[in-house]
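Regression check, adenosine-5'-triphosphate case 1187:
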Amino acid sequence: MTTSKQGVHIGRRLSDSKRPGETEILKVENLQVSFPTEDGLVQAVRGVSYTVREREVLGIVGESGSGKSVSSMAVMGLLPKSARISGSIRYRGEDVLTMSERKRRGLRGRKIAMVFQDPMTALNPVHTIGDQLAEAVLAHDLIPRKDALARAKEMLDLVGIPQAEARLRSYPHEFSGGMRQRAMIAMAIINNPDVIIADEPTTALDVTVQAQILEKLLEVKDAVDAAIVLITHDLGVIAGMAHRILVMYAGKPVEIGEVDQVFARPRMPYTVGLLGSIPSATVSGERLQPIKGTPPSLINLPPGCPFSPRCPLADDQCRTAEPPMAETESGTQLAACHHWSKLAEATDPTAFFRTNSETS
Amino acid sequence: MLAFIARRLAISSLVLLAATFIMFVLVALSGDPLADLREQSTPQAQAQMAARIKALRLDVPIPVRYFGWLTDLFRGDLGVDKSGHAVSSQLALATTATLQLVVIATLLGAFIGIMIGVVSALRQYSSFDHGITFAAFVCFSLPVFWVATMLKQYMAIEFNDWLRDPVIPLWVIGLVAVFAGLVWASIYKGRWKGKLTTFAIGFAVTAVVLYALSASHWFADPGLGFPFILVVSLAAAAGASTLVAGWENLQPMYAALASAGVGALLYQPLQPVLSDANLLSILGLALLTIVVSWVLGHTLGGLLRRQAIPLAVFSGLLTGGLIFVDRILQAWHSYTVSVRNRPVATIGSETPNYSGDFWHVSLDSAMHLLLPTLALILIGLAGHSRYSRASMLEVMNQDYVRTARAKGLPERTVIIKHAFRNGMIPITTILALDFAGVFSGAVVTEHVFGWRGLGAMFTKSLKEVDPTPVMGCFLVAGAAIVIWNMVADIAYAYLDPRIRLS
Amino acid sequence: MTLNTEHAEPTAAPQGMAVTARTQRQLVTRRFFRHKGALFGLALFLFVFVLAFTSIGFGPLPGWWDKPWTGSGTILDRGRPTLSVIPEFLGGSGIHLGEHPFGQDNLGKDYFALTMRGAQISIIVALAIGLVSTFVGTVIGALAGYFRGWIESALMRLTDVMITIPVLIIGAVVGQIAGNLGPYFLALMLGVITWTSVARLVRGQFLSLREKEFVEAAQAVGTSSRRIIFKHIMPNTLGVIIVSATLAVSSGILLETALSFIGFGVRPPDTSLGQLIQTYRSAMVTRPWLFWWPGIFIIAIALSVNFIGDGLRDAFDPRQNRVRN
Ligand SMILES: Nc1ncnc2c1ncn2[C@@H]1O[C@H](COP(=O)(O)OP(=O)(O)OP(=O)(O)O)[C@@H](O)[C@H]1O
Ligand code: SF4
Ligand SMILES: [Mg+2]
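Current build output:
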């Protein structure tokens, strides 16, 4: 186990950290989640598949409501009881959805850990930080409390909380947002997990703190040899931190591939639109081009590609048949679009969105 | 924390002071204390009037009168009533009875209400939840005086009549057993088969127990006995350990069982000690139980001491409680004989001129407290179960509960340590507010059951336009409420470090 | 560098506001009428209300019931109720009211008429208590919640003081003062002392709304406090106010009947449901119906109002009812 470097930080990059291995740790196949509500069945996740290998960072992006959180909660087994779940979620080959509740609980927090979006509410206000960290250890191993607290202190040190020993006795309200998120990260890694699911870990934080937290995440990932599923709205974060990217739209993956590949050659207009909203060298000086319109309601989805009402390339085929995830010119990059080849032909795919938004 | 309590104490005293002023003015406006004397024009009446004017300071304006009353109060003098008797001596008697009633009713009502509320939150939208919701609405709408009168008629008078030949008719056994079965089945969460089994077990156990009680004329001379205490205390220890610690690691359960077992085995040796007990020796025994249980929990708990110790203490106290109840029931037979076979009392807070040993006197107060407390609990239950249900539901949706689950904690730890602990924070506020409400209920209940407590003294004096005793009653009630609120505030601060540490 | 998609922003034009307000109201109405408990409560309340006010008439209005609530008469069948609701084919004596549906008291007074009169007074008093206490509570809560500084602390201390006095105790004293002046004045006085819970709720709402952007925006452009309170905050507090008003009505009826029962509420010659129970309490063994009917009506009124309140709460704040867990 490596310990944290002391002293000034020089931005830690993905390339500095350990390479991903070949073993598949988490394999999600055709995951579907729906919620019965008063207004009808909400199909929050409609067939998500992805794999995460050892030490790999998989980034998941998508608009609000696209099912990112719901799909990761399904992996953790934290969805409300009313949720209807189908498909399979395999941890090292074993399907967690058919596992006994006790066995599943053994994975949760020990092999698959999670960091939540809002550190202000994710910690219990009435218990000390030390207690909440130690509890994560004691939930899985029967060891003396003293040892669990020592482990907790070690983790607080690792995530860079000064005076860890004293801080064990603090309550969450005595911590700043950034410190709380560090504590959450410490809690996630305390049992040396194989996968850390980080659901927008920095959205609720100050911009200045965000970078530190993400760096810390990369650093502890190497410390415990974990893979990360990183959910975010921020494509810049993905560019700097993830090996692969999964783009979700309306409860479905629409594009998946190596980060470099997808950023250089997006093969799904929605991804193009997302990339178009990043100020980059090629379009510098021009206005950002947000995607017009809103995502569809997840109740009674119309037939066809769910992106068609907002897509500049949409035609009749798009409005009648929903495109499946299919290989593009490179076998490692999949996209769900009837017309991905049109994007391949264009020199600057983001131009589609520009012309579109200028004329409308 | 000490500064917190001191500040709270100061505020509370000021609040109470202001409240006495408001009440004093209102009471002074409520009538003419001289009305009864004005009608007569005899010289004695004139003299009495002069004396009363002087004693009650009726010749000065109300605010001045208030300051006079207050000055006396700080000297420890509560003043005199219309006929010149000191209020403090009347108050002393009335206060004990009423405070006993109010405190017991509040604590029991809160405890049962919170339990029901929590279960109904954990089983949201189950038939148990719906049933409780409906029952709570009905309880909310019940007038206390009506319930109290009903209890007096049907629980006391007819129950006492029934006790002459305490045989439960078969159809009653059947109905009660079906009801019990339905309640258990509605709490059970799972498939139909499990529900049916739960129903069958609940039905059968209830029916057999009731039948046995009826056939053996148990109610004529009730008691628990050693075998019963042993079995029940062990079962309760095992049940509590299952709920709190589960079956994965058994040390907490061993500790609880040991504590219950030791307690139950002491049943026989304890009898001579108990036969000339008093309140002090009972408290001493309780303390001893806590110490012994604590030691048992500590030694047997192993790495799970933090769970084992409370469980052991709980089991020990429960067993002790059972032995206590058993001993008090041993006094039942001679007690019923001494009150002419009407043990459920309907009038007053104690049998007049009753004398007996500790157990008989305790039984006497218990039987007098029974119905008024029941009436007040029934009313208070509704509020507590609703509030704790809402609070638990709110807490169960919090992010930190999700975090607790994400750590891989077992569901019972999530509920007890994370949800329940937080859910109780707002309940302390409700508990504080509710206390004044229970006092209101007590005034009415005392009226129905003919208690000579604060409520009766208050109503009687108010009707007779006798301001000093009215103020005396309010002073005691107000002080009790203010102190209670303070305790609740301290509990709040204890439960919530955000308050405690700021 | 954040993913940013454009959402259709609702324009804040005046017409737009009106549209959202109406749909909000429609939503609330729809949710209310979907609530089974609320419908049950509404039906029960209307039934009791219509029965009480049409049967013996009210004021100058004549009723359809032929016996007065004051006069006595000859006692038939020892005053037993003649109301029958079990049809003949079920072995009962058919569905009919009979001569004295609720029976008669020991003087031969028709107990149906008497109970209806009691119900009228109790309903009026309860509604008046609810109205007055909601008004006073809203004013106090709004002032305390909107203004900081001494107004807030003074009003909150006053609330603390009032909470320290058990309602029944101060109610009895007030009843002793106001009881001789008739039930309406009594109701007014009782409303004036029972505002604390409304005030606390309204203050809580105001405290949180005061921090909201739209209020801060209005303050920034110099809108007057009065306008902010009435135009911006009050409409958003309406739900809480209406719900606590219903709760105030149901606790109002319980307060009035309890006070009448211990002798500080409605006094003879007026009557109320609590007063009836007090009068006939001693006849519990010989004439239990004299005890049952007023009790049933008190419970029916309080229960129906509570159910209506619950429906309103769910309609205004469906948050609690979301399907989760
Ligand atoms: N318990 C639930 N009941 C009903 N619908 C739900 C529930 N939980 C989530 N949803 C719905 O599922 C959809 C997906 O939600 P999800 O939280 O996964 O989105 P997300 O991609 O994480 O968005 P964000 O970026 O805002 O976090 C949303 O439309 C949401 O309303
Ligand atoms: S399938 Fe058609 S509508 Fe959907 S993204 Fe591709 S081009 Fe656009
Ligand atoms: Mg999310």
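Comparison notes: Residues A 68-69, 199 surround magnesium ion (ligand 3) (CB under 6 Å). The mean pLDDT of chain C is 80. No diff flagged against the previous build.
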